């Protein structure tokens, strides 16, 4: 482990160069990614806009600082967000001189394309699914929290497991915001990856009277309907469809729901706990009297909140979990390339 910071930054920049080559070749990759992820082809093209192709020296030095050091990192990827392998590879390569990576069997296309374009002999794709056999200083696991827990139990003694598990985003609309502008920005964050990433907002808390929350819900329904005509939602699994029906029916009875061809927006009630929606372009909108109340309503599921988006992001520090990324509305899916997207493990 003799590389200094400058060399580690250079190794990560090589991956960003590979990302530029992959982005330029995106038209050829779209059909395979659409088939494996279930996203519509238009959704895949939209998602490619989140593939990082450059970063500042300060961001890359921050990424290197959070990556730590070890001899070898083994990376296990999930299939939720098809551009996620780039950051996963960058963190692993920043930490280690040897990287093995097991792509998601459901979504290997971008991982394989990045590895080919990078042509880095330190990065090797493998298909070993027996975690107990992995010889590495660290295992980086991306996926559902129960999968992360299973890997922690199965890993060899002494291996550090860095987990990136179940997460979600929350939008907070302050009393200073224009409701229609906020709805347009939230919709941009929701449509990307069909809301399956940990940065995707599933809940929108609206500061002010309940009728203001209803106005945002109605505006969001209109904007998502228009976006859905241009960028259709991909296929939902049978289980996801059943979950959507249950959630929609419950909220329609309690507060109100608006269903479109590619989305559902529901209105929560001030007196009831927030019923978190499933992914697949489902958004729960609820009124809060103050930002302090917003913090209280987030608290029961704060450990899962990876990102907070707001029209006044600078004011969100006191109400956001310490690990959550803060972003303007409409930019929640574009975090700085300065470390893991999910910072719960890194900041623990």
Could you describe the 3D structure shown?
The chain is an alpha/beta fold and 348 residues long. It has 2 domains: 5-164, Aldehyde Dehydrogenase, Chain A, domain 1 (3-Layer(aba) Sandwich), CATH 3.40.605; 168-328, Aldehyde Dehydrogenase, Chain A, domain 2 (3-Layer(aba) Sandwich). The chain has 11 helices and 12 strands. The protein has a 7-stranded mixed sheet with strand order 8-9-10-7-6-11-12, with helices on both faces. A 5-stranded parallel sheet has the order 3-2-1-4-5, with helices on both faces. Strand 8 (257-259) and strand 9 (264-267) form a beta hairpin.
Task: List the SSEs and their pairings.
Blueprint: H1 5-24, H2 26-37, H3 41-48, H4 57-67, E1 70-76, H5 84-95, E2 96-102, H6 109-118, E3 123-125, E4 138-142, H7 145-154, E5 160-164, E6 168-173, H8 179-191, E7 201-207, H9 210-230, H10 238-254, E8 257-259, E9 264-267, E10 282-288, H11 291-298, E11 305-310, E12 325-328
Parallel strand pairs: 1-2, 1-4, 2-3, 4-5, 6-7, 6-11, 7-10, 9-10, 11-12
Antiparallel strand pairs: 8-9
Helix pairs in contact: 1-4, 1-5, 1-6, 2-3, 4-5, 8-9
């Amino acid at each position: 482990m003799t590389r200094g910071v400058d060399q580690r930054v250079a190794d990560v920049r090589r991956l960003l160069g590979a990302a530029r080559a992959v982005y330029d070749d995106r038209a050829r990759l779209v059909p395979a990614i659409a088939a494996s992820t279930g996203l519509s082809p238009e959704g895949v093209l939209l998602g490619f806009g989140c593939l990082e192709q450059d970063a500042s020296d300060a961001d890359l030095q921050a990424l290197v600082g959070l990556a730590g050091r070890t001899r070898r990192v083994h990376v296990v990827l999930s299939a939720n967000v098809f551009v996620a392998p780039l950051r996963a590879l960058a963190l692993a390569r920043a930490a280690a001189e040897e990287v093995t990576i097991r792509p998601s069997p459901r979504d290997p296309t971008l991982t394989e394309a990045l590895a080919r374009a990078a042509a880095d002999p330190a990065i090797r794709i493998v298909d070993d699914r027996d975690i107990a056999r992995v010889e590495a200083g660290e295992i980086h696991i991306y996926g559902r929290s129960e999968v992360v827990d299973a890997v922690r139990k199965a890993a060899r003694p002494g291996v550090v497991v860095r987990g990136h598990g179940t997460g979600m985003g929350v939008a907070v609309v302050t009393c200073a915001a224009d409701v229609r502008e906020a709805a347009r920005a939230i919709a941009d964050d929701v449509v990307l990856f069909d809301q399956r990433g940990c940065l995707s907002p599933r809940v929108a808390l609206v500061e002010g009277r309940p009728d203001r929350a209803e106005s945002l819900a109605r505006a969001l329904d209109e904007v998502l309907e228009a976006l859905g005509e241009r960028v259709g939602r991909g296929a939902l699994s049978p289980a996801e469809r059943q979950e959507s029906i249950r959630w929609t029916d419950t909220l329609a009875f309690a507060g109100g729901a608006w269903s479109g061809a590619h989305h559902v927006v529901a209105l929560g009630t001030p007196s009831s706990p927030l019923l978190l929606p499933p992914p697949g372009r489902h958004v729960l909108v609820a009124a809060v009297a103050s930002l302090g109340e917003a913090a209280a309503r987030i608290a029961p599921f704060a450990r899962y909140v990876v990102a907070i988006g707001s029209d006044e992001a600078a004011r969100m520090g006191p109400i956001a979990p310490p690990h959550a990324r803060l972003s303007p509305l409409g930019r929640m899916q574009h975090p700085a390339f300065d470390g893991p997207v999910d910072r719960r493990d890194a900041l623990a």
